[in-house]
Structure formats: C-alpha cells, structure tokens
Amino acid sequence: IILIECKHWKQELSLHDNQLLRYFHVSKAKFGVLTNGIIYKFYTDLVEQNKMDEKPFLEIDLENLKEASIEELKKFHKSYFDVDYILTCAAELKFTSELMAQLVKEFNSPSPEFVKLFAKRVYEGMITPKLLDQFTTLVKKSIANHINNTISDRLNIALKNDNEGVKQDQTAQPIDQVDIQNAEPKIVTSDIEKEGFFIIKSILRKNVDPERITCRDSQTYFAVLIDNNNRKPICRLYFNNPENKQFALLDENKKEIKYKIQSIDELYIYSDALIKAIEKYT
Question: How far apart are CA 122 and CA 201, in angstroms?
C-alpha cells in the first residue's frame, strides 16, 4: 500500500540514487514516503502514471508540526484510508503548496511581472524603470500592511470570543492560559487532550467548518465546543487520570453520558454520535 524509505536522521532527504523510485516503479503501491524520522515526504504519481513524482505532495516536519499537516496525515489512518480520495487531495495539495511557495517568494521579493500586474490597475501611464522601483516598494509595503491587518483582526475576534467565554463560564480557561495571580498555572492541557481534540476535529471537519470547532480546558475536564461557546458543547474529555480515561457526550438536557476508553483512537468509534451532537448547532 505504502512504500517507506528510511534514512539516518542527520541525512538530507533526496530522491537521487535511492531505492524508493525503483521500488515504486515495480510495485502496485500508490504512495511512497521518504523520511529521516524527522521530516516525512509523501509522493505519488500525479505527473505520469506509475512513475513517482520528483516533488512530494505533502511534507511533514515533526519539529515544526502544523495543524493542517496533521489533518492531511490523518487521511492515512486505517479507519479513513481511501486511495482515490487521497489521490484527489494530493493533486490539490501539490499545487497549493507550490502556489504558496510562489506567493511567499513574491511577497518577500516582488518580481517585476508581479509589481506591474498591480501597478497597471492603479496607474494609467507607462510603467518606467523608475516607477517600477517605486511601485516595488509600495507593493511590498501594501502586502505587509494587509498581513498585519489580517492578523490584528483575527486577534481581536479571538479576544472578543475569549472574553465572552469567560463570562459564560468563569471556571473554564482556554488552552495554555495561565493564572496570572499565581506563580503556577492551575490548568495544564496535556498532549493527550490536544491529540483527542485533533481527532474529534478530524472526524467533524466534513460536517462543519473546522475553524468553528474550539476547545477549553478546566480543572475537571477538557471541553470541545462549537464557536467557542460554552453553551454549545460537543463533548468532554476526562483524561486527567491516565488509568481511567473517559469520553462524555451530552444528551438533550445537557446531562453527561460517559464512556470509558482505553485509547484515544477509540474516539473514532463514536464518529456517528459526534456528528449527531453537532447537528443541533449546524
């Protein structure tokens, strides 16, 4: 199903003179992974059938892990593995990552073609070399301002939602929030709680915008919510005791129904129940 070539962790990953290409050509596997244990590069045959692409459609760095990468990686989980679906997503991922790389390149150092594209929309005259230099500075400055404004707007929304959440439930705190009045935080969000949250988010992402799925940690339980609203609970995780992990859904009267689980992978068993839990909010 998947071919994996492992290199030493200090070794740079390159497709030249390795076995992955050769094995891919003579096997029925549709995916190849090249890794040094830290960086994982996922390949398939988008350009030419049965010939592995030179560029990966997905790259994951464990030292710089992003939520979007985790969501893509979960498509390879045995519960969701679907070759055709992953191949469809792979094509989109490949071009999206390449477009992102080009955008970053243009944002950091705008090319003359990029500058002229926008300059012609705001300036009717001829773009002389002198004007091109001026517009290059203006375009770069405009991009920076737009990014700063976007970040500022999102921070303001997050702070507004956070303040509303505190009013609704004074006992609950957002992830990693520290009690400023005390030297030590009262609430510590564990890795297993975060991983459980990502699994639930992965299950629900086809039914609701993932951005709407939020969480809050408290001293008693870890809550998964819709729209960061404590009145819109999806479920609760009781993972503070490693020997007695529990997962709770809420009925129509907001009464908990708890289920004991051995592993967080068992959350996938409750996929239908989780989807049903968000229907009243969507």
Answer: 43
